[in-house]
Amino acid sequence: MRMTKNLPPWEDEMRMTKRKRFLKDIILESILPPYEVDEAYEEEPTDVFQDSVERTYFNNFIKLVGSNGRVLDLACGSGRHTIRLAEKVRHVTALDLSHKQLYKARIRCRLKENVSFIRSSMFNLPFRENVFDGIWFSQAFEYVPPDMRDVFMSSIMEILKPGGILYMSVETWIRSSLLKSIKNYMKDLILYLCWKLLKRKPLMWGEYLYAQRRTNNTPLSRTYR
After folding, report:
1. Rounded alpha-carbon distances, angstroms, from residue 165 to 16, 131, 159
2. What's the pLDDT at 173?
3. Which domain holds residue 157?
4. Pick from 120, 116, 79: nearest CA to 98
5. How many structural domains are present in the chain?
6. Residues 163 and 177 reside in one and the same domain
7. Are residues 56 and 164 in the same domain?
8. Which phi and psi angles does 86 have, rounded to 5°?
9. Is residue 178 part of a domain?
10. Do 219 and 203 belong to one domain?
11. Tens of pLDDT along the chain (225 residues)?
């Protein structure tokens, strides 16, 4: 029989406070700053779509939403998908937390009259219920802490209209080569153990952080899986 340890209320509250403070720090001090640098973010594809798979899903998304749809480009970044969405649907709302990335998105979409931009956190969405016919959420779900994902998904579903379409993708250590996948996994595991055991941070497996190491003034990223 497995025994569960009941923590004293004060100890449980202290752990929760430490975890909340840690989440605030990694968003403000670790995740956001790399997107505010002047140089292009190192992982941003030169093409609108990262690969043929993403292009295929985009085309299917557009067919399901329809040309008269209202779409939220959540965590839009520099607007690489925003401009293509604006060509296909009635209106696009582009949301991101980064000033720098929103500026780039505005420049990229400057000739599009059916795009509006909002600076906000995806954890505090400023929309009423049942607003969008579709939500495009590309390569950003990894930023959602594991213990916040249920609440986050509920907030996403609330702003979708009944029958609305949600597209989500996530970065991962998995590659086409098994050897590369194993190497990426081991790097992430080592980094996770460093933060968890050596730095004694309240990190969870699946957390997204940036390594404190730079190449050409650009932070390198690591995603824990």
Report:
1. 34, 12, 11
2. 65
3. 52-168
4. 120
5. 2
6. no
7. yes
8. -65, -25
9. yes
10. yes
11. 344 445 444 444 555 677 777 776 665 555 555 555 544 444 454 567 777 888 999 999 999 999 999 999 999 999 999 999 999 999 999 999 889 999 999 999 999 999 999 999 898 899 999 999 999 999 888 888 888 889 999 999 999 999 999 999 887 766 678 888 888 888 878 877 887 788 787 777 777 655 443 333 333 334 433
**Does the residue 131 lie in any domain?**
yes
**Positions of E strands within the chain:** 70-74, 91-96, 115-119, 132-137, 160-168, 208-215, 218-223
Question: CA-to-CA distance for 1 and 87, rounded, in angstroms?
Answer: 60
Give the domain-ending residue among 126, 141, 168: 168
Tokens of 219: 């932070």
- Are residue 184 and residue 151 in the same domain, yes or no? no
What are the residues whose beta carbons fall under 8 Å from the beta carbon of 13, sequence distance 6 or more? none
Residue where the block lists tokens 């973010």: 41
Report the pLDDT value the prediction gives residue 170, as an integer from 0 to 100. Answer: 80
CB hemisphere CA count around 36 (13 angstroms): 10
Residues 102 and 185 reside in one and the same domain: no
Q: Are residues 58 and 163 in the same domain?
A: yes
β-pairing, 160-168 with 91-96? unpaired
The pTM score is: 0.73
Cβ 122 vs Cβ 60: under 8 Å: no
Written as six digits, the tokens of 120 are: 């906000």
* 70 & 164 share domain: yes
Distance CA 23, CA 14 (A): 14
Rounded CA separation 106/83 (Å): 10
